Amino acid sequence: MSRHIVILAVIAPLALAAYACGGTTSTGGTSGTDGGPGVDGSSVDGGSIADGGSIADGGTDLFPADATKIVASSKGGFGPGLQDGSTCSPADTTYTLTLPARELTWKVCSMIDGGLYAYDMGTKTLSAADSAPVEAALHAIAVTTKQMCGADAPEQTVTYSTAAGDKVLYDDFYYCQEDGKTYVHGIGDVLSEFAKVAH
Questions:
Q1: H-helix or E-strand containing 140?
Q2: pTM
Q3: What is the pLDDT at residue 111?
Q4: Which among 3, 53, 134, 189 is least buried, having the fewest CB atoms inside 10 angstroms?
Protein backbone atom coordinates (compact mmCIF):
# COMPACT_ATOMS: atom_id res chain seq x y z
CA MET A 1 0.00 0.00 0.00
CA SER A 2 1.42 3.35 -0.96
CA ARG A 3 2.07 6.07 1.58
CA HIS A 4 -0.72 8.28 0.11
CA ILE A 5 -3.32 5.52 0.41
CA VAL A 6 -2.35 4.92 4.04
CA ILE A 7 -2.78 8.61 4.86
CA LEU A 8 -6.22 8.70 3.21
CA ALA A 9 -7.29 5.57 5.05
CA VAL A 10 -6.52 7.30 8.35
CA ILE A 11 -7.96 10.75 7.54
CA ALA A 12 -11.23 9.75 5.87
CA PRO A 13 -12.81 7.99 8.91
CA LEU A 14 -11.81 10.90 11.15
CA ALA A 15 -13.47 13.40 8.80
CA LEU A 16 -16.67 11.30 8.69
CA ALA A 17 -16.73 11.02 12.48
CA ALA A 18 -16.33 14.77 12.89
CA TYR A 19 -19.18 15.39 10.47
CA ALA A 20 -21.50 12.89 12.19
CA CYS A 21 -20.87 14.27 15.68
CA GLY A 22 -21.29 17.93 14.89
CA GLY A 23 -24.61 19.72 14.48
CA THR A 24 -25.32 20.75 10.95
CA THR A 25 -25.76 24.29 9.87
CA SER A 26 -27.03 24.92 6.40
CA THR A 27 -24.97 26.70 3.84
CA GLY A 28 -25.61 29.17 1.11
CA GLY A 29 -25.09 32.79 0.17
CA THR A 30 -26.64 35.76 1.90
CA SER A 31 -29.28 37.84 0.25
CA GLY A 32 -28.99 41.51 1.12
CA THR A 33 -26.77 44.29 -0.10
CA ASP A 34 -25.14 41.84 -2.48
CA GLY A 35 -28.26 41.56 -4.58
CA GLY A 36 -31.15 41.28 -2.14
CA PRO A 37 -33.99 43.69 -1.43
CA GLY A 38 -34.05 46.75 0.78
CA VAL A 39 -36.07 46.88 3.98
CA ASP A 40 -38.93 48.61 2.17
CA GLY A 41 -39.17 45.83 -0.40
CA SER A 42 -37.23 47.66 -3.07
CA SER A 43 -34.24 46.12 -4.77
CA VAL A 44 -30.86 47.17 -3.41
CA ASP A 45 -28.72 45.78 -6.18
CA GLY A 46 -30.90 44.03 -8.71
CA GLY A 47 -32.43 41.29 -6.56
CA SER A 48 -35.91 41.05 -5.10
CA ILE A 49 -37.57 39.38 -2.13
CA ALA A 50 -39.74 37.32 -4.44
CA ASP A 51 -36.81 35.70 -6.20
CA GLY A 52 -36.09 33.44 -3.22
CA GLY A 53 -32.56 34.71 -2.77
CA SER A 54 -30.23 32.20 -1.18
CA ILE A 55 -29.46 32.56 2.51
CA ALA A 56 -27.88 30.31 5.08
CA ASP A 57 -30.81 27.90 5.43
CA GLY A 58 -30.62 26.88 1.79
CA GLY A 59 -32.63 29.49 -0.07
CA THR A 60 -35.69 30.51 1.95
CA ASP A 61 -35.72 34.24 2.65
CA LEU A 62 -37.69 34.72 5.86
CA PHE A 63 -38.20 38.45 5.22
CA PRO A 64 -41.68 38.69 3.63
CA ALA A 65 -42.04 40.99 0.63
CA ASP A 66 -45.21 42.54 2.04
CA ALA A 67 -43.92 43.27 5.55
CA THR A 68 -45.34 46.48 7.00
CA LYS A 69 -43.57 46.32 10.35
CA ILE A 70 -40.56 44.58 11.85
CA VAL A 71 -40.03 44.32 15.60
CA ALA A 72 -36.73 43.05 17.01
CA SER A 73 -36.61 42.56 20.76
CA SER A 74 -34.58 41.19 23.63
CA LYS A 75 -35.92 40.63 27.13
CA GLY A 76 -35.42 38.66 30.29
CA GLY A 77 -32.40 36.53 31.06
CA PHE A 78 -30.25 36.33 34.15
CA GLY A 79 -28.25 39.42 35.05
CA PRO A 80 -26.81 41.31 37.99
CA GLY A 81 -29.12 42.70 40.63
CA LEU A 82 -30.41 46.19 39.90
CA GLN A 83 -30.32 49.16 42.22
CA ASP A 84 -33.60 50.32 43.69
CA GLY A 85 -35.04 52.94 41.39
CA SER A 86 -34.15 51.17 38.14
CA THR A 87 -37.14 50.84 35.86
CA CYS A 88 -35.83 48.18 33.47
CA SER A 89 -33.30 45.40 33.01
CA PRO A 90 -30.19 45.94 30.84
CA ALA A 91 -31.33 43.25 28.39
CA ASP A 92 -34.68 44.93 27.68
CA THR A 93 -34.56 46.26 24.13
CA THR A 94 -37.15 46.79 21.40
CA TYR A 95 -36.67 48.21 17.90
CA THR A 96 -39.67 48.75 15.64
CA LEU A 97 -39.25 49.52 11.95
CA THR A 98 -42.34 50.65 10.06
CA LEU A 99 -42.36 50.13 6.29
CA PRO A 100 -42.18 51.47 3.67
CA ALA A 101 -41.43 54.77 5.47
CA ARG A 102 -38.39 53.25 7.23
CA GLU A 103 -39.46 54.90 10.47
CA LEU A 104 -37.52 53.43 13.37
CA THR A 105 -38.56 53.67 17.00
CA TRP A 106 -36.63 52.23 19.92
CA LYS A 107 -37.00 51.51 23.61
CA VAL A 108 -33.66 50.51 25.07
CA CYS A 109 -32.74 50.01 28.72
CA SER A 110 -29.64 52.08 29.45
CA MET A 111 -27.63 53.05 32.51
CA ILE A 112 -28.24 56.57 33.77
CA ASP A 113 -26.77 58.57 36.65
CA GLY A 114 -25.94 56.68 39.82
CA GLY A 115 -25.93 53.25 38.22
CA LEU A 116 -29.69 53.19 37.72
CA TYR A 117 -31.28 51.79 34.57
CA ALA A 118 -34.08 53.48 32.67
CA TYR A 119 -35.52 53.35 29.16
CA ASP A 120 -34.01 55.45 26.41
CA MET A 121 -36.66 56.01 23.74
CA GLY A 122 -36.63 57.75 20.39
CA THR A 123 -37.63 57.72 16.76
CA LYS A 124 -36.05 58.59 13.43
CA THR A 125 -36.51 57.96 9.73
CA LEU A 126 -33.69 55.87 8.31
CA SER A 127 -31.94 56.83 5.11
CA ALA A 128 -31.23 54.20 2.47
CA ALA A 129 -27.61 54.09 3.64
CA ASP A 130 -28.63 53.59 7.28
CA SER A 131 -31.12 50.87 6.41
CA ALA A 132 -28.75 48.86 4.19
CA PRO A 133 -26.87 47.03 7.00
CA VAL A 134 -30.13 46.49 8.88
CA GLU A 135 -31.80 44.85 5.89
CA ALA A 136 -28.72 42.76 5.19
CA ALA A 137 -28.89 41.37 8.73
CA LEU A 138 -32.63 40.74 8.39
CA HIS A 139 -32.18 38.81 5.15
CA ALA A 140 -29.35 36.79 6.68
CA ILE A 141 -31.63 35.34 9.38
CA ALA A 142 -31.92 31.62 8.72
CA VAL A 143 -33.78 28.68 10.22
CA THR A 144 -31.39 26.78 12.45
CA THR A 145 -30.57 23.12 12.03
CA LYS A 146 -28.27 22.74 15.01
CA GLN A 147 -29.20 21.13 18.30
CA MET A 148 -28.43 23.25 21.32
CA CYS A 149 -29.93 24.12 24.67
CA GLY A 150 -29.11 27.10 26.81
CA ALA A 151 -30.25 28.85 29.96
CA ASP A 152 -30.30 32.34 31.49
CA ALA A 153 -29.84 34.28 28.23
CA PRO A 154 -32.38 36.92 27.17
CA GLU A 155 -35.09 35.80 24.75
CA GLN A 156 -34.47 37.42 21.37
CA THR A 157 -37.17 37.58 18.72
CA VAL A 158 -37.94 39.16 15.37
CA THR A 159 -41.59 39.64 14.40
CA TYR A 160 -42.70 40.37 10.85
CA SER A 161 -46.14 41.94 10.42
CA THR A 162 -48.04 41.59 7.15
CA ALA A 163 -51.68 41.91 6.12
CA ALA A 164 -52.01 38.18 6.81
CA GLY A 165 -50.80 38.50 10.40
CA ASP A 166 -47.62 38.28 12.45
CA LYS A 167 -44.78 35.76 12.17
CA VAL A 168 -42.45 35.45 15.17
CA LEU A 169 -38.91 34.06 14.85
CA TYR A 170 -37.04 32.96 17.99
CA ASP A 171 -33.30 32.90 18.61
CA ASP A 172 -31.99 29.34 18.53
CA PHE A 173 -30.30 29.59 21.95
CA TYR A 174 -33.36 27.73 23.26
CA TYR A 175 -33.80 25.47 20.24
CA CYS A 176 -33.95 22.29 22.35
CA GLN A 177 -37.40 23.13 23.70
CA GLU A 178 -38.93 21.72 20.49
CA ASP A 179 -42.19 23.56 21.13
CA GLY A 180 -43.24 24.22 17.54
CA LYS A 181 -41.68 27.70 17.38
CA THR A 182 -39.49 28.76 14.47
CA TYR A 183 -35.91 28.93 15.78
CA VAL A 184 -33.34 30.88 13.79
CA HIS A 185 -29.83 32.25 14.00
CA GLY A 186 -28.86 35.84 13.23
CA ILE A 187 -31.20 37.81 15.49
CA GLY A 188 -28.27 39.12 17.54
CA ASP A 189 -26.82 40.65 14.38
CA VAL A 190 -30.15 42.37 13.65
CA LEU A 191 -30.26 43.89 17.14
CA SER A 192 -26.66 45.03 16.76
CA GLU A 193 -27.35 46.79 13.45
CA PHE A 194 -30.44 48.49 14.84
CA ALA A 195 -28.40 49.73 17.81
CA LYS A 196 -25.91 51.40 15.46
CA VAL A 197 -28.56 53.51 13.72
CA ALA A 198 -30.89 54.21 16.65
CA HIS A 199 -29.39 57.58 17.63
A1: helix 128-140
A2: 0.68
A3: 87
A4: 3
